Amino acid sequence: MVGPSIEPGNSITLPGWMNQPTDEKEHRLQANSDRGKGSGFLNRNLRELRQVMLDDLLTERYARRDYWLQQLDPRLKLLAIIVLILLVALTRSITVFFVMWVCSLLLMSSARLPIWSLQKRIWGIFPLITLIAAIPAMFSLFNPGAPLLELYHSMAPHYWLGIRLPEQIYISRQGSIAALVIFLRVGLSITWGMLLVITTPSAHLFKSLRVLRVPLLVVMILEMTYRYLVLLIQVSHEMFEARKMRTVGKLSLRARQWQVTSSIGALFIRSMQLSEEVYQAMTARGYTGEAVSLDE
Amino acid sequence: MTPANTFKFERVGYRYGRDEWIFRDIDFVVDAGESIVLLGANGSGKSTLLKIMCGLTFASAGRLLAFGQEITEEHLENDSAAKEYHRRVGFLFQNSDAQLFTTSVKDEIAFGPLQMGMKKDEVRARVDDVIEMFGLSNLADRSPYRLSGGEKKKVALASVLVLNPEVIILDEPTNGLDPKTQRWLTELILKLNDQGRTIVVATHNLDLAHAIADRALILSEDHRVVFDGPTRDALSNREQLIDVNLIDEYFHIHEGKHHIHQYRHN
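Structure tokens for the assembled complex are given below, as produced in the milestone run.
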């Protein structure tokens, strides 16, 4: 008998090929082009996201320790961080930036945080992207000033299609400082934010937002966003792992694109269903659009 | 005067879109203090029927009376009517993740009573009682994502029971629970029913049905109620259970012989 079938009496007939082990030689050639471990843009990013969200924030393993920074009143921490971030946003002094960075390192070490891995995470992604985006600002075309490094110089003006080309292109001191300031601002803002989030249990953090008179409904929405973001990261991670386990060798770009888009689609549908159910669960316990909290 | 029956379904139907009927012409009555199990294979419409009972979805045809009052979308648009109804009818979702939406176990349990407008001191006292009753003290400040499947189910149930509902509706409550937690849950359901609460459970777990409910309703795969009567009769009618695809012909119950139950008898 060919093909699977469930006969009356519930005896399941396996298809012929399932009765014997897979012939390895036949299938090995497809596995030859196996990529190295940890490659793949999506894989890396999901793993990183999961690492940050699930391992550090969710387990609250740093937030639950008994050092002074963790013990500090979350409301005080929140206010202090807001002041510090404002300072980062307003100052232009490289010295101030440097002093702040050293302070942040001292705080991290006093709270027994993993300084090196945090530095990698803080400075390695967003500030670096900002820096790359800010590269054009370093050139004299956008930020003329004192030349730092001359790239091109001509005596007579050149024209191209009637456009007068600049006689001189150089990296300016002012431009470089501007780019550096942006880089440091982004990095230090993330540093302060990270320091707050990693040393404070999320529930306390959300409650302390109320001190700043953030409306309860907004706090509730933030809380729920955080709660379900985590769930969706878990789901997407599982989906990705399930795919990966069934993927042998290297897939074509097209196949990978299809994988990613279909995963996004599936995830979207799941999150829609979930949000519908969450709303029903809230309604079932008497929610009529008004937020109430036990703490005020 | 309280009407004798808690729920009365009159030719209730539900459909997606224009003609895709999930079920049609459902007629049955749930009396106060009864424990009923809704049996049906996957996809027979059990969950939807439960959600209609809870006033979360509304019938596309026919009508549902609860506590003598017709439950319609318009009726529950009135906030106080909705709060009152949801206080009396508690619903345990199949998916605990949908039900646990706050940042800590304590907040989760307090959500319902706060929404009902109870005084904060009373809410705190109730929450503490329920936490103690469920043995959740060491988890009180924990986030829902740091709970195991069994713990999530317990918290979800705690957050329903804290409102002290008259009717408790449970959708596949034992799914994914280990045997010990299943037995714990079964005992709790029995106890709640003993105290006079109406229990409605949807499941395809026949052991659970046998353990908790006196009366069973069987939904067929074509979404009709094909049986309404004592659970014992429902479970001993093999032809019917096979017919609605709940079991196959190899399923058997060791009647009259020594056998081991997962659950303690009443």
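The CA atoms of residues 103 and 212 of chain A lie 25 Å apart. Residues 1-7, 32-38 of chain A have pLDDT under 50 and may be disordered. Further analysis is deferred to the final report.
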